[in-house]
User: Which sequence fits this backbone?
């Protein structure tokens, strides 16, 4: 299990979650029944595939400790295991939120924790 997992979200959507104290997910999460996350190794490809050209995004780092059985790693792209959270995210688990700027058509990521 990874110490941190990452969620890319439109800034206004996550700002609303910060006011509410919990994040219930983006429309795709609500449709799928879980909140999609990526590991540090996966998040750049997630940005390129699902957020290409989008601006006004944030990158949310979430501590996995304490998420319990609601956090499940399941096969997705090419059989890779992606973290999925079955239930709302209590923002007490958020380590940090940073802008995810688009520069030259590519999202520029802050340093990410790869760790186990």
Assistant:
């Amino acid at each position: 299990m990874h110490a941190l997992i990452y969620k890319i979200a439109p800034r206004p959507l996550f700002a609303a979650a910060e006011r509410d104290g919990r994040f219930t997910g983006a429309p795709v999460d609500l449709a799928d029944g879980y909140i999609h996350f990526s590991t540090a190794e996966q998040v750049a490809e997630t940005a390129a595939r699902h957020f290409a050209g989008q601006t006004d995004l944030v990158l949310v780092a979430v501590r996995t400790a304490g998420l319990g059985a609601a956090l499940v790693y399941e096969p997705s792209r090419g059989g890779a295991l992606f973290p999925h959270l079955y239930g709302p995210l209590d923002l007490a688990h958020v380590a940090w939120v940073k802008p995810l700027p688009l520069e030259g058509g590519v999202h520029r990521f802050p340093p990410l924790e790869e760790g186990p």
Observations:
- The helical segments are 11-20, 27-32, 43-50.
- The chain has a mean pLDDT of 94.
- The beta strands are 4-10, 22-23, 35-36, 57-63, 71-75, 81-85, 89-90, 94-99, 102-103, 106-107.
